[in-house]
Amino acid sequence: MTRRTAFLAFSLVIAIGLLGLQSWDLALGRIERSAVEAIEARTGFAVKSLERAEIALLPLPRISLSKVAFAQRDGVVAGEAVRVRAYLRLLPLLTGRLGIGRIDLVAPQLDVAVPAGSDSLGDWLASPLAELEKLRSQSRIVISSGAVFLRAAGAIQSIVRNVNIVIDERGAGEPFGLSGSLTWRGVSTDVSLVWPVAGGSTKAALSVTSPLMKLRFEGTRAGPGEPVIDGTLALSTPSVPQLLDWFGERSRISTALGALTLNADLQLKPREASFTNAVASLDGDRLDGVMKLTDVDGRFALSGTLAGASLDLGRLIRRLPLPAVDAADTSPLDLDGWTGRDIDLRVSVDAARIDGARLADVATYVLVKKGRFETGLLRASAYGGTVKGRFLAVGAPTGVDVKLQAGADKVDVSQAAADLPQLARLVGTGGFQLALDGAGRTFDELLGAMTGRAGISLRQGEVGGIALAELMRRAERNPSQLLRDWHQGKTPFETLAANAGIANGLLVLTDAQMVGPNYRLNLAGNASLRTRQLDMRASLASLSGSLRLPLVLKGPVEAPFFDLESEAFLSPTAGSVPVAPSLIGR
Q1: Whole-angstrom Cα distance, residue 212 to residue 334?
Q2: On the chain, which terminus has fewer CB atoms closer than 10 Å, C or N?
């Protein structure tokens, strides 16, 4: 036998001898009373009932309680466990006292009372953490295979399953700490928390790792009298909508976002989080700035100013669950679904993309309040010119009041056509103006109530797909060849301008004219916003006024019919020559 082995054996014999000298009363009643008092003192829980108590000295001294019911003294947390094991410290035991170093809760079911109507994790954790702060010290607590039921007025708000958590032992003034894993809303999550409960400037830290989120926060709290925490935050998620949905936050606007990484200096105050020196990456597009998240009477509000080099606005818009503007859709317009949270966000970027269109020096914003949604372009440069726009929807007694304003100036359409195939048939430089205002409970009512104005002006360009100038030359030189196919080629123009008034969902042209080298085209008529049908007529005339050709523009906006009227006449100064009806429309 070595000296070390002999020494250990001798120490064990002395310890057993000392234990034998103590007047231990191993009666079940005293075990229960002593164990319960020690557990209550070291956990802050009051034991309400238990089935039986047992003590064992080997291999480690411990007291085991079966089927234990317990509760915090104010009733915020209550529950029961299949077994509670209290591991005893050896030195106090040698002097006849029960000193607990660790407490195991085996398969506990905890009920946590949360405020009625609360739906945030912060509200749910506030009361239990406040009770733990009241303890001057506590033992190491190990929770295995547990479940936590969050209840408001007896109704279950949420359930946390597979709770395997270790709460660190702490002394007076030391921070509260825990680490382990749990499953919440079907997602397995590893957590680690250090929370200051007393003293001056104290460390605070949080780590959360799950398939939906990786979060790291490290900082300090100023003190219990000043509940302000400052630190650094690192957050990443593959999907912002899925992450918010995990926390019970469902927002239609958030569907515009995809993968996000965020690094920032974070300051936490009661119901307020401020992000400074923030660096956010949205699907690879970097934005820098400041943001603030506040909670006012249970309503979250996000505000901030961000700037970056580039941003794909088109990708953000495509992800939104935007309803189709269709008069056949008779379902009520749902503005509340878009205004559930307050937002005041301003974004400026050097370059932006919107479905192929390239913009520069862009300033955009989103402004949301209860019953009000507004967004727009404050400024943007595009293809040698400028563009702007504003969309506003406000709840009204008549449903939803919508205002739409858009405009462009000095834009080179031929440059834009390289990025926007829908403009491939149009060349020229100019702009447009649009202003619409209407209210309704459905799209049918809204479109039928629209009023406003629209205008377009271009110069030195051409229109593809028709050859009006060639049609005029044929009519002047050889009327018999008039109806040869003129729906090919291009029509150059010197100026193109159109103005329209809109009332009760009907757009009426007040002045529309296109002038080319040898022709003038005047257009008159109307278009229905509800049916998207055109009903217009045009007059194609030579600049000398000696010839006039009537045309018709009818049908759906997506594919209108544009041709000579079936009773068109050539009208030279010397007389009128009819065009054979059988040739019209070829």
Answers
A1: 29
A2: N
